[in-house]
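Limitations

Structures in this collection are predictions, not experimental determinations, and the ligand pose is part of the prediction. Treat each record accordingly. The example that follows, with iron/sulfur cluster as the small molecule, is included so readers can see exactly what is and is not provided: the inputs are given verbatim, and the output is the predicted complex.
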Amino acid sequence: MQITLNIHRKDPATNGEKPTFQAYQVEVEEDATVLDALLQVRDQQDPTLAFRGACQSGYCGECAMHINGKGRFACLQSVQGIVKKDEVKVEPIRNIPVLKDLVYDMETFLFRKIKNLRPGVRPAAAPAGMYELDDAQLAPLRNAMTCHMCGLCDEGCTVIVVDKDFMGPAALTKAYRHVFDPRDADTEARMAQVNGAKGIWDCTHCYEANSHCPLGIEPTDRIFDLRDLAFRRGITNNPRVERHHLSFIESVKETGHLNEAKLAMDTEGVTNVRGLISLMPTAVRAFRRGKLPNPLTHKKRPGAEKIKRIFEKVEGKK
Ligand code: SF4
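Predicted complex:
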């Protein structure tokens, strides 16, 4: 099969920061993968082409790249299954600093975040035998433990696009793996960390991370597991999150639906005119997009009393 590989090229040493695309004609077998095609280009046409790909079996996650517009492992993606009009376009994954061609800076993108979360089980000093867990104890972790740290979930993350410092689904999946490991004795410190700035509460639950993970680890759900645990332990070190949830509950309980303007003010702890002024830039942006809620027009919805009774029942008041 004859195809054109359109490959992202960038070499800070020769063409500065500006990326270009270079087309290569290759003849590949019917069952060739995109990584096979890239290897062929590097071996037979252009030894300067840079990309990563170690195991060639879908284990190492190193060959994660954008292939015809979607994040995939090049070693698992067949050319035949992706080629369009005899062409395959190959780019680095999004949101990531590129060092050369298809080689990107995983340290800046992901590894530094994982290091900050102190990977590695930290057991308490304990009697011999504490490591003998049965299968049921480790079962919830097994999926997360298979994470290749390929970064494809971070590539799909809609928060990292606007805030590169958000811990992101890959690092938070690593945090989950340690927090829920019964052998780990560092739960307090780990939870304090993910519960703080740039952590679990910045996730917008768009579920993009789940759909980008090629291993079915469902990183968005792992973030929710961490959030549930934070709730069960009481949200003690993030007053902003606490205010947000209390306001949410109060609003739905009292009026049957969400008072979005009050939620924004309560979350930010607005209690005076200066606080109101600090919210003005956000309010102006919301107004321009026709999304500025008016707290004065927020009224009880029909059935609000029934909703309130449900809350009271749950709270054990009636
Ligand atoms: S959770 Fe999935 S997509 Fe994210 S780094 Fe791990 S293997 Fe890759």
